[in-house]
Design goal:
Blueprint: E1 2-7, H1 12-24, E2 27-33, E3 47-50, H2 56-65, E4 70-73, H3 79-84, H4 86-111, E5 115-122, H5 131-137, E6 139-140, H6 151-168, E7 182-189, E8 191-193, H7 206-215, E9 220-222, E10 232-234, H8 235-247, E11 257-259, H9 267-277, E12 283-285, H10 289-297, E13 301-302, H11 305-311, H12 319-335
Parallel strand pairs: 1-2, 1-4, 2-3, 4-5, 5-7, 6-13, 7-11, 8-10, 9-12
Helix pairs in contact: 1-8, 2-4, 4-6, 7-9
The structure holds serine.
Length: 338
């Protein structure tokens, strides 16, 4: 039995991850979230704690009660919300992550063994200067264009570095190096699309919003230009990536953070998939030029060859399969739509 802490467990990735860990078996999950669990979430957890990642005494109490082997630190404010409340974003995304890394390192040192720390980062760490450079750059590698223009992207990039520091250099001047370390593993996700939940406060939300509006028979005013292109991934693949990276033998890992990606459609291609399933759907493009500028600074695709060769990453869902076998059946089930 591995004892696992999941922060943000009631969020989009949390829902999928909890299901997958329950199916796999062998995990005792302690879940933490600001919000009370949705139906179905609580039963998948050994314990569900409603609380804040900024509450250090609460985190200390959790670490005193549970010897965590693995932490999935999912709690965060997404990019649009972070742009509206930058200081709150810094507190949650940076100070919150620092608190969790402190929990992990103190536990690792107390137990004298490593504590794995899985951290979802994002394509938001990239900052392409203009649409022409974005088009020319194509698939972006992990070390290129690391000049984000959003608070969220900056928070994520810094926390990747913080994770690397905790894994490799934490208190490097101490006279003695205790046994036990944080085994930090970061993963840069593209926009994620779930059939079960709708994200809040993200800038890639136009894709899931199209799907969930159409499935509920609601018209949708899409906030991006039709030619907008960023990478996306179906939620089961995001969960597969997190678990795959968590399970990878440490000696196979050559980097602290990996790109993962699966398909990279223009907004019009997403629209066409949704429209084919819901032909009467009404949708218009009404670009929000400020949110558009953020999307124009994110790459149109990422190079995930390191993840493929180091730990065997491979997505199960391309665009067609994601819609036909996961998203459309999932939203039809959820909303009872034809
Ligand atoms: N999907 C996120 C957002 O739009 C990026 O990681 O904020």
């Amino acid at each position: 039995m591995a004892t696992v802490l999941i922060t943000g467990a009631n969020g989009e990735i949390g829902h999928g991850l909890l299901q997958a860990l329950a199916q796999q078996g062998g995990h005792r999950v302690v879940a933490l979230d600001l919000h009370a669990p949705d139906d179905g979430v609580k039963s998948l957890c050994h314990r569900f704690v409603v609380g804040d990642i900024l509450d250090v005494p609460l985190l200390r109490a959790l670490a005193a009660e549970h010897d965590f082997d693995l932490v999935f630190h999912l709690a965060a404010l997404l990019s649009t919300k972070s742009e509206r409340e930058p200081t709150l974003a810094h507190q949650v995304n940076v100070n919150g992550t620092l608190n969790l890394l402190e929990l992990a390192v103190s536990l690792a040192r107390r137990l004298g063994r490593s504590v794995k720390f899985l951290y979802p980062s994002s394509i938001a760490v990239y900052g392409l200067p203009d649409p022409e450079s974005k088009r020319r750059a194509g698939r972006v590698g992990e070390d290129d264009f690391l000049t984000p223009r959003t608070m969220y992207g900056i928070n994520k990039l810094y926390c990747e570095q913080l994770g690397r520091y905790y894994a490799l250099f934490y208190r490097q001047l101490d006279a003695e190096t205790p046994r036990g370390r944080v085994d930090f593993r970061g993963i840069r996700f593209p926009g994620l699309i779930s059939a079960v939940t709708v994200p809040t406060g993200g800038t890639s939300d136009f894709a899931p919003e199209m799907l969930h509006h159409a499935a509920q028979g609601q018209p949708y005013a899409c906030f991006v230009r039709p030619d907008t292109r960023i990478p996306f991934m179906a939620m089961p693949d995001a969960v597969k990536a997190l678990i795959g990276l968590a399970d990878a033998p440490p000696e196979r890992l050559s980097r602290p953070v990996y790109n993962v990606t699966s398909f990279s459609p223009a907004a019009t291609e997403l629209e066409a998939r949704v429209r084919a399933a819901f032909p009467d759907w009404r949708m218009t493009y009404e670009p929000d030029l400020k949110r558009q500028a953020i999307l124009d600074s994110w790459p149109e695709d990422t190079d995930d060859s390191a993840a493929r060769s180091d730990w065997g990453w491979e997505p199960d869902y391309g665009l067609e399969r994601a819609f036909d076998e996961y998203l459309l059946p999932g939203v039809r089930r959820r909303y009872g739509s034809a």
